[in-house]
Amino acid sequence: MTISDRIFERLKQISMSQKEFSELAGIRQSTISEWKKNKTNPSSDKILAICKALDVSPEWLLSGVDPAASRGKNQEYYVVDIKTDTGLIVERFNRLDKSRRDRLVGYIEALTAELKK
Description:
The protein folds into two domains: 3-69, Orthogonal Bundle (434 Repressor (Amino-terminal Domain)), CATH 1.10.260; 85-116, no CATH class. It has helices at 3-13, 18-25, 29-38, 47-54, 58-63, 85-95, 98-116. It has seven helices and no strands. Helices cover 62% and strands 0% of the residues. The longest helix has 19 residues, at 98-116. The chain has 117 residues and is an all-alpha fold.
């Protein structure tokens, strides 16, 4: 099953129209129609918006594997909306050089250790 197959399968499951999906994901309806008509997959820059609109994980969308069904194994990544405080922190963190990242991680570890007291 392709990524676009999973998208259209999910739209059916949640009874969402292509128009509603287009509006939620911020993707033109004509682009979505092309995926269906030509059996093509979305470009990588649209994956997170699709996941958010369909309430699915990137892992499921890309592979069909449901992380919730993987014997209680915790996910090793987060999907973060860049418009949130967490997204802002991640975006700014990624701009730092390695030594400043290490310093910031050390500071965070010290703060969280302090909370445990």
